[in-house]
Structures are given as structure tokens and as C-alpha cells.
From TrEMBL:
It comes from the Bacteria. The keyword Oxidoreductase applies. This is NADP-dependent oxidoreductase. Its EC number is 1.-.-.-. It comes from Kitasatospora cinereorecta. Keywords: Oxidoreductase.
Length: 311
């Protein structure tokens, strides 16, 4: 089979479509025929080695972790799935930008409901489940206010919608051209991070400070700066690591990787299928242009998810 492969830690433009052995389903595994695969920032860091200390890679690496397709083969001991079933999954370093991949039953694999096409389904697993995990970890509640920094990225677009659905007042960072769209997703207010100081604008909107800051962009001392938008005793949550003390009794919650719970992915898929959760596809590439998809994802401002379709 063909797959997008990194043979070592390397520059993104040195990736190539290459032959890899056809996977087989071991006990407790499924082989999936891939229809679409979505890219995430972690994919870039795995290729270049920027994340090697936290996530070491065994080469050759097949790029991508989010996939939608159909069950091709069912391994021993697997129940509830049969060949031909449409599914979506987070497959980790098994690799998603390929003609076939391997997945395991559990909370990171879900049936794909009618009405949810493969492209939108592939855009859900990592970003959607991370957004769920972040809001759950910080305990966001109805009536609270939340600033989402990085609201137009893959995770951010879901975080805005899920926070709004919980009954929170959402303030989201967005450029002028994206502001109307982010408001449609549920943001009550937007802050143009290119033109304004995000913290100062947020404190103008909520003088006492927001209850929660969800920062999907900054790391290290940058998170301490974002925390100034939180009220004393508020919370900050981030998938990137930062200082243990943010001052003013603002509690930091750092999530290095999402911890999915049973039903999370199924719920996201159902909501996407019935239209109550919008999935934004910022760019779509055919399998033959997978290397371009990766380099564009790394270098261009793309609202939403980048998806590679596989014939």
C-alpha cells in the first residue's frame, strides 16, 4: 500500500508517498480502509523531531493520526464491528495518511453515523476530543465566562462551540475576516489579536476578568501573560506546558494529551451528523498532494482543519 512516510526526523518538504506493508489485524485490532485523514500540529512536531522528548518516534513513521473510513478486517476478539462498517478514529502513530491503517476498539474509535461524510468525520477525533478534555478538566460551567485563545484553529473551533453549548459566555480571538464566523459558532465577543492586545481587550469586555482562559497558542511565559485575563481565583487550561504559578491564585491545568472517555467520540460524531456541531474544513487535498497538504498546513493561516482524501 501507499502511505505518507518520514524515514527519519526531517524537514516537512522531504516527506514522500512510499510503499509500506499492508497491515493485518492482530487480536483486538481492526484494519481500516482509509477514506480521509486530517492533520494536527502534533503531526508536524513528530516529523521534524520537535516533540521527540515527549513523543519519541519509531521510524519509518506514517504521518497523521485522525482517520475516517470503513472496516476492512476484524481481528480476533473484536466485537461490535464488521467489514464494511463506516468508522472514525484516532489511530496515533499507526498513521492515517495511508491507504490502510490499524485501529483498536475503545473510546478513540466510533461508528460513523449516517449523514456524516468521511471528510468531516476525519476532522473530529483529535481536535474534538481535546476540546472536550480541556473544558472537562477545567470544569467550565453554565453562566461562566471563557476566553478562547486560538479560536479559529482545529481545537479552538470546537472549544468555542462546546463552551457555548454548556451555557458559558465565550470571548474568542479571531481576525476581522473570521470574526463573523466565530460569532456564528457561539462567541459572544471577538478580539482581533492582530490589531489589539488580547488581555486588555478582554478586561475591557469583562473588567473583573474571565472565569476561564483556554489558551491553545501560547506556551511557557506566554501562558502567564494570558492568565492576566482571568479573574483572581480563575482557571487557565492549555494543551501546552507553562509555569506552575500564574499569580493571583489563577489555577493552571496543563493537558499534554487528551484522555478520552467512553462516548466522547460517538457524541461528537452524532452532533456533527445532526448539524449541532459544525466542522470547518479549511483545505482539502487529494492523496497525491499529501506533501503539499502538510507544508501548507505548517506555513499558511488556514481556518479549521486540513484533510487529505484517499481514493
Amino acid at each position: 500500500m501507499k502511505a505518507l512516510v518520514a524515514t527519519e526526523y526531517q524537514a516537512l518538504d522531504r516527506l514522500a508517498l512510499a510503499d509500506r506493508p499492508m497491515p493485518s489485524a492482530g487480536p483486538g485490532e481492526l484494519v481500516l480502509k482509509v477514506e480521509a485523514a486530517a492533520l494536527n500540529p502534533l503531526d508536524l512536531a513528530l516529523v521534524t523531531g520537535a516533540a521527540r522528548e515527549l513523543y519519541p518516534v519509531r521510524h519509518p513513521l506514517v504521518v497523521g493520526m485522525d482517520v475516517a473510513g470503513t472496516v476492512e478486517e476484524v481481528g480476533a476478539g473484536v466485537v461490535g464491528y464488521a467489514p464494511g462498517d463506516p468508522v472514525l478514529a484516532f489511530v496515533g502513530q499507526a498513521g492515517a495518511v495511508a491507504e490502510y491503517t490499524v485501529a483498536a476498539p475503545g473510546p478513540r474509535l466510533a461508528p460513523r453515523p449516517p449523514g456524516l461524510d468521511a471528510v468531516r468525520a476525519a476532522a473530529l477525533p483529535e481536535s474534538g476530543m481535546t476540546a472536550v478534555c480541556l473544558l472537562r478538566a477545567v470544569g467550565l460551567r453554565a453562566g461562566e465566562s471563557v476566553l478562547v485563545v486560538g479560536a479559529t484553529g482545529g481545537i479552538g473551533l470546537y472549544a468555542v462551540q462546546l463552551a457555548h453549548s454548556l451555557g458559558a459566555r465565550v470571548i474568542a480571538t479571531a481576525t476581522a475576516q473570521d470574526a463573523a464566523y466565530v460569532r456564528e459558532l457561539g462567541a459572544a465577543d471577538t478580539v482581533d489579536y492582530r490589531e489589539r492586545d488580547v488581555v486588555q481587550e478582554t478586561l475591557t469586555l469583562v473588567p473583573a476578568g474571565v472565569d476561564v482562559v483556554v489558551d491553545l497558542v501560547n506556551r511557557g511565559d506566554g501562558l502567564a501573560e494570558s492568565a492576566r485575563a482571568a479573574r483572581p481565583g480563575g482557571r487557565l487550561v492549555s494543551p501546552l506546558y507553562g509555569p506552575p504559578d500564574l499569580g493571583r491564585e489563577v489555577s493552571p491545568v496543563y493537558i499534554g494529551s487528551f484522555t478520552s472517555e467512553p462516548g466522547d467520540l460517538e457524541s461528537l460524531a452524532r452532533r456533527a451528523a445532526d448539524g449541532t456541531l459544525r466542522v470547518e474544513i479549511g483545505a482539502r487535498y487529494p492523496f497525491a498532494e499529501a506533501v503539499t497538504a502538510v507544508t501548507d498546513f505548517a506555513t499558511k493561516h488556514i481556518r479549521g482543519k486540513v484533510v487529505v482524501t484517499v481514493p
